[in-house]
Amino acid sequence: MTDGNPYARGCAWTHADGFVPIREAKMSLLDAGFSRSDVTYDVVAVWNGQFFRLQEHLDRFERSMDRLHMNLRVDRDEIEGILHECVRRSGLREAYVDMIATRGWPGRGGRDPWTFKNQFYAYAIPYLWIVEPDDQEVGSHLVIARDTVRIPEASVDPTVKNFHWGDLTRGAFEAHDRGGTVAVLPDLDGNLTEGPGFNVFLVIEGELHTPDSGVLQGLTRRTILELAEEHGLGTHVAPVPVGEAARAEEAFITSTAGGVMPVTMIDGRTLGDGQPGPITLRLRQAYWDAHDNSRWTTPINYDVT
Ligand SMILES: Cc1ncc(COP(=O)(O)O)c(C=O)c1O
Predict the structure, then answer these.
(1) Which band of pLDDT confidence, cut at 50, 70 and 90, is reported for residue 304?
(2) Which atom of ligand 1 is the closest one to the Cα of 256?
(3) pLDDT in tens, 233-254
(4) Is the CB of 167 within 6 Å of ligand 1?
(5) Do residues 64 and 166 share a domain?
(6) How far, in Å, is the centroid of ligand 1 from the Cα of 161?
(7) Would you say 20 and 28 are in contact if contact means Cβ atoms under 8 Å apart?
(8) Alpha-carbon distances, residue 193 vs 160, 168, 232, 253 (angstroms)
(9) Of all atoms in ligand 1, which is nearest to the CA of residue 219?
């Protein structure tokens, strides 16, 4: 129910219109963020009315903009204020909060990207799950794409969060056609990378393995590596050859949109007893518990007007 709040389904902010209900948010067809995928973005979660690792998401967003030579007319404090206000107006206690920087548009006739006026957009909508909680109880069937490789990092830097999803979407269709529910793409050297919106972990002989390169340095991935260390689990951030998947006793994928999501089958092979594994479940619990830990949370003041 929206209870008369026009922002209850989500609230957006744009330079042109300020704060608007999510369905009224607009962007120009001329924005190169749309026409050229010339854009970077970041997504931070709100859980129990608190941002999770907001400063780290803002750090990554700023670094991504630097890499793309983008400059916004709003500074970090203003961005933070806009994100807070989007969530506050929506009233959402669990939210998916997106901040987007686009190349924008040029002066008349120009096409040199350094002349464009970069744009900022932000919005908060109800929290999104890559794998719904009920489906997480069953676990995902992960398919490692054979016909699709991840765009080489020498072409598109995967550490800059981006909309170049042609390869990831193609991999998702390949996984779907092969009976899978989620896809991970290999790189040109036959090492695992990542999937559409998530990083991947294998558990081999009780230790965690996740690719070191060719991936977004996911903040959920970082949180899991930190929590694993606190739990005394071994971690390996290094190339993970595709063949290693055959040795995995557990696996899971990680994202701000869904947290730690168990994988119970890889390429048709059942992992362990076919249930989400014990290390996966332990880390998933630790991950959600961390959302109440003040070292990583920033409360939203819903009362301020
Ligand atoms: C390609 C890709 N890899 C990994 C991730 C996971 O990153 P994070 O844990 O920071 O959400 C995302 C998130 O959207 C992504 O788009």
Answers:
(1) confident
(2) 11
(3) 999 999 999 999 999 999 999 9
(4) no
(5) no
(6) 8
(7) no
(8) 15, 11, 25, 12
(9) 10
Question: Ligand 1 center to residue 148 CA distance, Å?
Answer: 19
Model confidence over 159-196: pLDDT tens digits?
999 999 999 999 999 999 999 999 999 999 999 999 99
Any domain includes 297: no
DSSP string, 112-150: -GGGSEEEEEEEEEE---SS-HHHHHH-EEEEE-SS--P
Q: Are 17 and 90 in contact (CB under 8 A)?
A: no
What is the pLDDT confidence band of residue 2, given thresholds at 50, 70 and 90?
A: low
- Which of 81, 96, 126 is a domain's end point? 126
| Same domain? 119 vs 139 | no
- Full residue range of the structural domain in which residue 57 is found: 11-126
Q: Is residue 162 in contact with ligand 1, taking CB distance under 6 Å? A: no
Mutate to test the pocket of ligand 1, among 160, 216, 287 (most ligand atoms within 8 A of CB): 216
Ligand 1, residue 57: give the atom nearest the CA.
10
Q: How many domains does the chain have?
A: 2
CATH number for the domain that contains residue 254: 3.20.10.10
User: Cβ(61) to ligand 1 under 6 A?
Assistant: no
Does 1 score more than 80 pLDDT? no
CATH of the domain at 26: 3.30.470.10
Contact 188, 241 (CB under 8 A): no
| Boundary residue ending a domain (126, 161, 195) | 126
